[in-house]
């Protein structure tokens, strides 16, 4: 037996041996990742591999494929032309079998798939978007979701996913805000570690695990003007303390792969930032996994950033900086072989990248188990258990922003209900970006959720869309107003859409991102490539709401959207407001259960909602020196970080700390009693913030350093504890190293950043 085929040997040893057997064409082949949906043709359920793919396999091989099972406007794969759960597994097996049996060394292909909030394939469970997942403040539940996503993806043969997204949101005008967990690095770090643990499981070789790819490394959420992939103006201290923090937590959790961001930082594109890719990632953190580019990132070096003369120069710069594989494979596939033959690419640099790719394949067990189990795929994907999990996540992440005079929950005798708005019954609109097309019966819209909830009650539900998300057409106003006039309660389902249009002109054919052109039209106002100048409702949605308000009916607003909405009129005039973000396929049921009191809302904001777009940036953990107000308005957000209402009330009492003075080497325990003082069971998110009174480097006024979601019955009290030590007190000092500075700290515990009780802690030098 050849050494690399011996499963008893360590992955690194097997990879070294296989590398020694490879020629330069085979080495380069391992570093390219063509688009997977272009490797086959589906003719009425019969899969035929393309001649181009077969030729690539024979001429050196294909290291990886991107999006074999991806379905969306970019791929052109629709519900009609796409593959079912079982068919997808069979197609992957056919691709994999050809590669293994028709390449000299029989190296299996690494199948990479998008799984930000569910596998982006036909039949996959569509969970809520990360912005809602973060709003659950329930790390354990999210970890469980990641296990489900990994199981669905691996069941079809996918072995690596391009998630989680760990970007820290600084400007919510950015279209990819929905893909992120929060504006706070600590909270993102907790979800980052849980993501790696959930996706990768106890062993990468498990048939329920996939390799996690952390993205986008780094600073991607701090782009100039909130424009996607724009330059980032950030010093090293902030980079280390804020944007790099979640990535570090995920690397410590064992992440197998990482993806550099498109953007540049201080003039250096992340794709060729050796200080980040080698200095921080590998030397400081000890990361030993694979680095893969984002799609088209190497092209941008020569046409966008303009730091490379041409494609060959860009490719060599990238691999020398630490890139191991290129998504799309266009540049590496075109130029690396030439660079190696002309002596422009050192053999040891090429070998270093290939070794990392091969090592990951061995760790994933692909050489022993290259094929999926179609029967298992059919059983696992879209299962009833995963569907129930999707609903529970939505229920825990939806946020009650306003509830004037206890408008919610709706009482049994509250009469006719009118459900109005462009998002009331548009299933695709509630799923978010990076979602495959769905059959209408699979997605529970708000209208369907309410109808299902009231099917046993003698209550009539009226419906009218009223208007579109975008555009100035008011032709639906008359019908909507007639519905509202007939009802006692009006539920307005407004917001945004990240539903991609199947028109070719609205897609960047290189990267798959949506793009805005002067003549493009669809309702998409959020998602990758869709950045906005304002945070107001698009189109005539606000006008429709104002007309309905004149009727004097009870008015409940449900926002379904991918970024914060700043509409002062709605905040002032609606009786109740629910922020549902993009709640996934079961979102309608979750919203209905909250509206009627079957579920007590427990979601809390992980991103501040401003009064006006002109207040940006408005994230809570800005510096103390940033000023207090504008001429027209103060700088405080409408709804602060950590905010969210409940149908019950909670009281905080008896805050205590185990010691009021300690050395930098010691720790203290902070405890607080939390009591449900209302009449309904509910969950409170107890949040710990820390302030450093005086420091050598200016600091934020408050920083999140702990949280716990606590379920309480009426009248029940629970004691919540937080340990405070080096990790909670340290910051990046003037020497760009973590340090705990002796002095005075204030410890805050409460329901959100602006509603806490506090105590003092003195930290002394070590004795």
UniProtKB/TrEMBL annotation:
One of its GO terms (biological process) is glucan catabolic process. It holds the Pfam family Fn3-like. GO terms for molecular function: beta-glucosidase activity. Gene3D superfamilies: Glycoside hydrolase family 3 C-terminal domain, Glycoside hydrolase, family 3, N-terminal domain, Immunoglobulins. SUPFAM superfamilies: (Trans)glycosidases, Beta-D-glucan exohydrolase, C-terminal domain. Keywords: Hydrolase. InterPro entries: Cellulose_Degrad_GH3, Fn3-like, GH, Glyco_hydro_3_C, Glyco_hydro_3_C_sf, Glyco_hydro_3_N, Glyco_hydro_3_N_sf, Ig-like_fold. It comes from the Bacteria. Residues 684-753 form the Fibronectin type III-like domain. Belongs to the glycosyl hydrolase 3 family. PANTHER family: BETA-XYLOSIDASE, PERIPLASMIC BETA-GLUCOSIDASE-RELATED. This is Glycosyl hydrolase. It comes from Paenibacillus yonginensis.
